[in-house]
Amino acid sequence: MGKVLAIVSQKGGVGKTTTAVNLAAAFARRGMKTLLVDVDPQGSVRFGAGLRKDHPTYGFADYLSGERTLRDVLLPTTLPWLRVMLAGSVTDLADHTNYQEQIASGEQLPRMLAAAKERCDIVVVDTPPGLGPVTRRTLASADRVLIPLQAEPLALQTTPQILRGVQDIVTTHEHLVFDGILLTMYEAGNPACESTVQYIREKVPSHLMLDVVIPRSPALAEAFAAGQPAVVRSPADAASQAYVNLATKLAERAAG
Ligand SMILES: Nc1ncnc2c1ncn2[C@@H]1O[C@H](COP(=O)(O)OP(=O)(O)OP(=O)(O)O)[C@@H](O)[C@H]1O
Ligand SMILES: [Mg+2]
């Protein structure tokens, strides 16, 4: 039986989707049978996950509405061990309330995740920003959680909020293993960035921080624009290597 790893953050734009896509690809490249699930109605995973050309765009929302079967929404990628479940047609709607209500009140999400981890070694779930109903329902079915935190001066203000979020998550979901806070978009040599990271390391207990740090790298956005995970498109890039190292560490932990 595999594990469900949720990528979560109260804040938007911190690198959740980039982390979910690249970690999933890095797990798959290790030979782990991997499913990447996008429950964020923004549906960004579809652009960067390495789906085959002319892939369908239906996904989890279309399974929820009864229009597609689970089998229909499991899409192959260019990596043999990676499959993807997109958010689906909810992405084209301006209003996501119905989708959120369906997830909050129905049993499909927990059932789907339970079935997925029966068949996979790891199920990586990209969630919407915030701790709303979709993220909470995901956390209730997840085994592990990872929180990306952008290494930027604003983190000085948001770190206490992030820590309250971590506390909220671990106290309300006792079964969850907290894999840690992942610093993203780190710029070595940028004094504002370096002092932010120093501040975070002083304020946050070290067992809550992952020691792998993701550097800021144009290769990540470039790969996304080209429809590929950076770990596939630019494996020698420092950010890709950081994601590969992180996948190794998390895979060892999850197996142990
Ligand atoms: N390490 C990095 N270096 C450079 N750019 C990055 C890095 N990580 C993420 N980005 C860029 O930052 C932006 C936000 O990243 P991403 O979409 O992964 O964040 P998110 O947390 O999923 O956002 P949202 O909350 O909207 O879902 C994207 O343009 C992405 O390409
Ligand atoms: Mg995202």
CATH topology: Rossmann fold
For the record, what CATH class applies?
Answer: Alpha Beta
| Record field, number of beta strands | 8
Profile the largest sheet.
8 strands, mixed
User: Which consecutive residue ranges, at least 5 long each, have pLDDT under 50?
Assistant: none
Mean pLDDT: 94
User: What is the tally of helical segments?
Assistant: 11
Structural class label: alpha/beta
Can you describe what's shown?
The chain has 256 residues and is α/β, with parallel strands linked by helices. The protein has one domain (3-255): P-loop containing nucleotide triphosphate hydrolases (Rossmann fold), CATH 3.40.50. Helices cover 45% and strands 18% of the residues. The longest helix has 18 residues, at 155-172. The two termini are 13 Å apart. The model has no long low-confidence stretch (mean pLDDT 94). Bound molecules: adenosine-5'-triphosphate and magnesium ion. The site of adenosine-5'-triphosphate has 20 residues, from helix 1, strand 7 and helix 9. Residues 16-17, 40, 44, 126 line the site of magnesium ion.
Q: Topology of this protein?
A:
Layout: E1 3-7, H1 16-29, E2 34-38, H2 45-48, H3 60-64, E3 75-76, E4 82-85, H4 97-105, H5 108-119, E5 122-126, H6 133-141, E6 144-150, H7 155-172, E7 177-186, H8 191-203, E8 209-215, H9 218-225, H10 230-233, H11 238-255
Parallel strand pairs: 1-5, 1-6, 2-4, 2-5, 6-7, 7-8
Antiparallel strand pairs: 3-4
Helix pairs in contact: 1-11, 5-6, 7-8
The chain binds adenosine-5'-triphosphate and magnesium ion.
